[in-house]
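All the exercises in this workshop are built on plain-text protein records. Sequence and backbone structure share a record, each on its own labelled line. The structure tokens are whole numbers drawn from a learned vocabulary of backbone shapes. The record below serves as our worked example for the rest of this section.
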Amino acid sequence: MTERNRGDDGARERSARRLGALVALLAGAVAFAAFQPALRAGFLNFDDDFLYVQSAEYRGLDARRLAWMFTTTRLGHYAPLTWLTAALDFAMSGLDPRAFHRTNLILHASNAALFCLVAVRLVREAQPERADAHPFALRIASGVAAILFAVHPLRTESVAWVTERRGLLGAFFLLLALLAWLRACAPRRAELASRAWYFAALLALTASLLSKGLGMTFVATTIALDVYPLRRLPGRVSAWWKKDFRAVWLQKVPVFLLGAASAWVSAWAARSAGNTVRTLEQWGPLARVGQAGYGLLFYVQKTLWPAGLAPLHELPYRYDAVEPRFLASLVAVAVLLPILFRLRRSMPWLAAAAAGYGIALAPVLGFAQAGPQLVADRYSYVACMPWALVAGGALLLAWSRVRGTIFRAATAAVLIALSALLFALCRKQTEVWHDSRALWTRVLEAGEPSSIAHNNLGAMDGADGRYETAIEHLQAALAIRPGEGRAWFNLGLFYTAEDRLAEAERAYREARKTMTPAADPLVNLGNLYLNRLNRIDDAVAAFREAVADVESAGPRRFSPLPYLGLGVALERKGETAEARRTLEFAAQFPETRERALQALGR
């Protein structure tokens, strides 16, 4: 090659890199614009209110609050860096939901740009000859992959829900870790190409795991990449233990340890949230296998045809193994897995994408079920990235094989039309997350049988004084899930407001069976006996049971309200000495001090 040719190739590569940077920025900008309606949304009664509106612990950057961020497992998640970003939002804008949504949008736009850069490297390694021959097409194909990933209605839950900030931040650092890993590990070479980039990858992975534990399977992802497209490991498992590949396995040890630590912390955090984790008695092994099969197909199906998206896909009250959606999913997975295995040599890109998809989904397929969801759109955020890479690779392949102007123009027109359609669907889906009523109404409109949606809509109707429709929603919630304590509790509130006192008594008694803490319905039951039914002995019994419940629950769930109620009831019963002791105790707490002192005559 002459000096002039080398100079031309160098200039061409520099131009391609500049194009790649512009395409990445464009992908980020389009991703931001697609979900821009989220800036008009508020905090939702879907964890947002509890995490950000009612909580004050994160509102500051002093040592005490930072210590809380790095030790709390609120709502079953350990995410200190996510709490730190919320503290920064609050420090700059107070409790303005626009600020919190803006940060989510910026993170998603950044992820789109980073994914574009990841796509350039992975598509190049999958098709090195075509990438070298068509460097501009490589960047455009990677940009298309980024758009297909970032501008898709399946991303809406991750972007428009403030609570899912942890997933966006975790993905941001995970993409940085992957970029650094690809620089540290050169294709077809067992030794590290750069120790600096290797340690940068470990640092970024640590930050990702401190944002959300979605990177706990990163070690498996790196193994899959080492097989294809990096080809740092042989295609045959029997050859993996050869001397040349021992270095590759040693590189995985720190990654494995970080992932294992994150898995342990995530399990601990989930267990700390009370009734979040389902036991095998509640959700058996067969149900978990059926849920996993359903989940594996669900996200692919919704990627190809994003119709009927819902903010919540609630776990069934009971698992039915012959229900068509579960049975068909298991059959499909059983058929597809052997086919993918047989195609691993002739179509390694497909096998690698499927492996990456399964690896990313593994922690959330239901084998360790936590939360009320059967599947969740947010779980597709990282898991569906491999399918976007396949689309980008297919575009580069088509570009290199078919050189006709008409074909390229037609391809460009189809891609622009598809992007415009996805863009419009994203904006429409984002409106679903505008407010709590729109959110829960959409769950029911999508045909999801959801006790949670009915319960929340009932609570909102009751708060607005529409007791008749509130009771209808709550009865519908209990028809789906008869043991839903919160629905029974709300039903007791609205029956009381309607003077249907016998029904209110029954509702509170049902609520105490399953609600945690049980003190809440017991206090309301005691007040019902004391103030409306004039059954003093029953009131004292209910308040005593509530006191026992808060004393057994530990300091994290302590409430002085049962002591206040018990003191007042004892006073009316004439047991003055015990009443005064109980009221003196209740007077020590801000939320009950005024009423306790009033009862004491002070």
